[in-house]
Amino acid sequence: MIALREPQARIDAIRRRDPAALEDVARDNITRLVRTARASGLATEDAYDAAQETLLVFVQKADQFDGRASARTWLFGILYKKIAERRRAFAREETLDDIDAVVAARFDTTGQWLRPPQTADAAATAGEVMTRVEECLEEVPERPRSAFVLREVEQLSTDEVCKILDVSANNLGVMLYRARNRLRECLEAKGIHGSGDAAV
To answer: Residues 150-185: pLDDT tens digits?
Structure first.
Protein backbone atom coordinates (compact mmCIF):
# COMPACT_ATOMS: atom_id res chain seq x y z
CA MET A 1 0.00 0.00 0.00
CA ILE A 2 1.36 3.43 -0.96
CA ALA A 3 1.82 5.81 1.96
CA LEU A 4 -0.56 8.71 1.51
CA ARG A 5 1.17 11.00 4.02
CA GLU A 6 4.60 12.56 3.76
CA PRO A 7 7.11 12.44 6.65
CA GLN A 8 6.84 15.57 8.79
CA ALA A 9 10.38 16.70 7.93
CA ARG A 10 9.55 16.64 4.21
CA ILE A 11 6.25 18.47 4.82
CA ASP A 12 8.10 21.18 6.74
CA ALA A 13 10.76 21.48 4.03
CA ILE A 14 8.12 21.82 1.29
CA ARG A 15 6.13 24.36 3.29
CA ARG A 16 9.17 26.59 3.77
CA ARG A 17 9.99 26.16 0.05
CA ASP A 18 13.33 24.53 0.69
CA PRO A 19 14.94 24.44 -2.80
CA ALA A 20 16.29 20.91 -2.36
CA ALA A 21 12.89 19.56 -1.24
CA LEU A 22 11.06 21.26 -4.11
CA GLU A 23 13.65 20.03 -6.60
CA ASP A 24 13.27 16.47 -5.28
CA VAL A 25 9.48 16.62 -5.73
CA ALA A 26 9.86 18.02 -9.24
CA ARG A 27 12.52 15.48 -10.27
CA ASP A 28 10.55 12.56 -8.85
CA ASN A 29 7.34 13.50 -10.67
CA ILE A 30 8.02 15.47 -13.87
CA THR A 31 8.14 12.42 -16.15
CA ARG A 32 4.91 11.04 -14.71
CA LEU A 33 3.19 14.41 -15.02
CA VAL A 34 4.11 14.75 -18.70
CA ARG A 35 3.20 11.13 -19.43
CA THR A 36 -0.17 11.52 -17.72
CA ALA A 37 -0.92 14.77 -19.54
CA ARG A 38 -0.05 13.08 -22.87
CA ALA A 39 -2.16 10.04 -22.05
CA SER A 40 -5.01 12.38 -21.13
CA GLY A 41 -5.09 13.59 -24.72
CA LEU A 42 -2.88 16.67 -24.71
CA ALA A 43 -0.41 17.21 -27.54
CA THR A 44 3.23 16.84 -26.51
CA GLU A 45 3.88 20.58 -26.26
CA ASP A 46 0.68 21.13 -24.28
CA ALA A 47 1.56 18.21 -22.00
CA TYR A 48 4.92 19.77 -21.18
CA ASP A 49 3.25 23.13 -20.60
CA ALA A 50 0.66 21.58 -18.29
CA ALA A 51 3.38 19.78 -16.32
CA GLN A 52 5.40 22.98 -15.97
CA GLU A 53 2.32 24.94 -14.90
CA THR A 54 1.60 22.22 -12.34
CA LEU A 55 5.08 22.52 -10.84
CA LEU A 56 4.81 26.31 -10.84
CA VAL A 57 1.53 26.18 -8.89
CA PHE A 58 3.09 23.64 -6.54
CA VAL A 59 5.99 26.00 -5.78
CA GLN A 60 3.69 29.02 -5.45
CA LYS A 61 1.39 27.22 -3.02
CA ALA A 62 4.01 25.10 -1.25
CA ASP A 63 3.36 26.90 2.05
CA GLN A 64 -0.22 25.56 1.92
CA PHE A 65 0.88 21.92 1.62
CA ASP A 66 -0.53 20.20 4.70
CA GLY A 67 0.86 16.72 4.08
CA ARG A 68 -2.48 14.95 4.56
CA ALA A 69 -1.79 13.35 1.18
CA SER A 70 1.52 12.76 -0.55
CA ALA A 71 3.18 15.48 -2.61
CA ARG A 72 2.59 13.26 -5.63
CA THR A 73 -1.17 13.17 -4.98
CA TRP A 74 -1.20 16.95 -4.56
CA LEU A 75 0.72 17.39 -7.83
CA PHE A 76 -1.62 15.13 -9.77
CA GLY A 77 -4.56 17.04 -8.35
CA ILE A 78 -3.08 20.27 -9.70
CA LEU A 79 -2.27 18.60 -13.04
CA TYR A 80 -5.82 17.32 -13.37
CA LYS A 81 -7.11 20.91 -13.01
CA LYS A 82 -4.57 22.16 -15.56
CA ILE A 83 -5.65 19.50 -18.05
CA ALA A 84 -9.31 20.45 -17.51
CA GLU A 85 -8.46 24.14 -18.04
CA ARG A 86 -6.75 23.33 -21.32
CA ARG A 87 -9.67 21.22 -22.46
CA ARG A 88 -12.06 24.07 -21.77
CA ALA A 89 -9.76 26.42 -23.65
CA PHE A 90 -9.79 24.05 -26.63
CA ALA A 91 -13.59 23.84 -26.31
CA ARG A 92 -13.39 20.07 -26.62
CA GLU A 93 -16.62 18.73 -25.16
CA GLU A 94 -17.01 15.02 -24.74
CA THR A 95 -20.01 13.10 -23.52
CA LEU A 96 -20.05 10.06 -21.25
CA ASP A 97 -21.60 6.76 -22.28
CA ASP A 98 -24.85 5.76 -20.62
CA ILE A 99 -23.76 2.92 -18.29
CA ASP A 100 -27.04 1.06 -18.85
CA ALA A 101 -26.52 1.15 -22.61
CA VAL A 102 -22.97 -0.19 -22.20
CA VAL A 103 -24.19 -3.07 -20.04
CA ALA A 104 -27.10 -3.84 -22.37
CA ALA A 105 -24.75 -3.95 -25.35
CA ARG A 106 -22.33 -6.35 -23.65
CA PHE A 107 -24.37 -8.73 -21.46
CA ASP A 108 -27.61 -10.69 -21.61
CA THR A 109 -30.26 -10.65 -18.87
CA THR A 110 -28.40 -13.35 -16.93
CA GLY A 111 -25.16 -11.35 -16.88
CA GLN A 112 -23.40 -13.52 -19.49
CA TRP A 113 -21.33 -12.01 -22.30
CA LEU A 114 -23.29 -11.60 -25.54
CA ARG A 115 -19.96 -11.90 -27.37
CA PRO A 116 -17.27 -13.42 -25.14
CA PRO A 117 -13.79 -11.83 -25.22
CA GLN A 118 -11.51 -13.40 -27.79
CA THR A 119 -7.96 -14.59 -27.39
CA ALA A 120 -5.07 -12.22 -28.05
CA ASP A 121 -3.96 -11.75 -31.64
CA ALA A 122 -0.58 -13.47 -31.70
CA ALA A 123 0.50 -11.54 -34.79
CA ALA A 124 0.22 -8.13 -33.13
CA THR A 125 3.50 -6.82 -31.82
CA ALA A 126 3.78 -4.96 -28.53
CA GLY A 127 4.58 -1.73 -30.37
CA GLU A 128 1.54 -2.01 -32.62
CA VAL A 129 -0.69 -2.76 -29.66
CA MET A 130 0.62 0.26 -27.72
CA THR A 131 0.03 2.51 -30.72
CA ARG A 132 -3.56 1.25 -30.98
CA VAL A 133 -4.08 1.68 -27.21
CA GLU A 134 -2.89 5.30 -27.43
CA GLU A 135 -5.20 5.94 -30.39
CA CYS A 136 -8.14 4.38 -28.56
CA LEU A 137 -7.40 6.23 -25.35
CA GLU A 138 -7.97 9.46 -27.32
CA GLU A 139 -11.58 8.34 -27.86
CA VAL A 140 -12.34 7.81 -24.16
CA PRO A 141 -14.17 10.77 -22.55
CA GLU A 142 -12.09 13.02 -20.32
CA ARG A 143 -12.96 11.89 -16.79
CA PRO A 144 -12.94 8.12 -17.42
CA ARG A 145 -9.68 8.53 -19.36
CA SER A 146 -8.11 10.47 -16.48
CA ALA A 147 -9.26 7.82 -14.02
CA PHE A 148 -7.83 5.05 -16.22
CA VAL A 149 -4.48 6.78 -16.73
CA LEU A 150 -4.01 7.61 -13.05
CA ARG A 151 -5.02 4.14 -11.84
CA GLU A 152 -3.74 1.81 -14.56
CA VAL A 153 -0.84 3.70 -16.17
CA GLU A 154 0.53 5.66 -13.23
CA GLN A 155 -0.57 2.97 -10.75
CA LEU A 156 -1.79 5.42 -8.14
CA SER A 157 -3.85 3.88 -5.37
CA THR A 158 -7.64 4.06 -5.42
CA ASP A 159 -7.54 6.53 -2.51
CA GLU A 160 -5.10 8.79 -4.37
CA VAL A 161 -7.15 8.77 -7.57
CA CYS A 162 -10.35 9.49 -5.63
CA LYS A 163 -8.68 12.49 -3.96
CA ILE A 164 -7.28 13.81 -7.24
CA LEU A 165 -10.56 13.50 -9.14
CA ASP A 166 -12.71 14.32 -6.09
CA VAL A 167 -14.92 11.25 -6.55
CA SER A 168 -16.08 8.37 -4.40
CA ALA A 169 -14.66 4.87 -4.82
CA ASN A 170 -17.97 3.81 -6.42
CA ASN A 171 -17.83 6.67 -8.94
CA LEU A 172 -14.22 5.79 -9.72
CA GLY A 173 -15.26 2.21 -10.35
CA VAL A 174 -17.91 3.34 -12.84
CA MET A 175 -15.40 5.59 -14.64
CA LEU A 176 -12.86 2.76 -14.86
CA TYR A 177 -15.56 0.41 -16.14
CA ARG A 178 -16.52 2.89 -18.85
CA ALA A 179 -12.91 3.54 -19.84
CA ARG A 180 -12.04 -0.17 -20.04
CA ASN A 181 -15.12 -1.00 -22.10
CA ARG A 182 -14.56 1.93 -24.46
CA LEU A 183 -10.93 0.86 -24.92
CA ARG A 184 -11.95 -2.75 -25.49
CA GLU A 185 -14.54 -1.80 -28.12
CA CYS A 186 -12.07 0.45 -29.92
CA LEU A 187 -9.26 -2.11 -29.83
CA GLU A 188 -11.54 -4.88 -31.10
CA ALA A 189 -12.64 -2.60 -33.95
CA LYS A 190 -8.93 -2.27 -34.82
CA GLY A 191 -8.53 -6.05 -34.81
CA ILE A 192 -6.91 -6.43 -31.39
CA HIS A 193 -8.73 -8.86 -29.13
CA GLY A 194 -8.01 -9.63 -25.48
CA SER A 195 -8.92 -12.54 -23.27
CA GLY A 196 -10.00 -10.63 -20.17
CA ASP A 197 -13.20 -9.06 -19.05
CA ALA A 198 -13.26 -5.29 -18.71
CA ALA A 199 -14.62 -5.58 -15.20
CA VAL A 200 -13.44 -3.18 -12.53
So the answer is: 888 888 889 988 988 888 989 888 988 988 888 888
| This prediction's pTM | 0.60
Whether domain 8-90 has CATH 1.10.1740:
yes
DSSP-derived secondary structure for 30-67? HHHHHHHHHHTT--HHHHHHHHHHHHHHHHHTGGG---
Q: How big, in percent rounded to 5, are the helix, strand and coil portions of the chain? A: 65, 0, 35
Which among 139, 116, 136 has a CA at the least distance from the CA of 197?
116
From residue 7, give the alpha-carbon distance in Å to each of 17, 102, 160, 197: 15, 44, 17, 39
Fold category of 99-189 in CATH: Arc Repressor Mutant, subunit A (1.10.10)
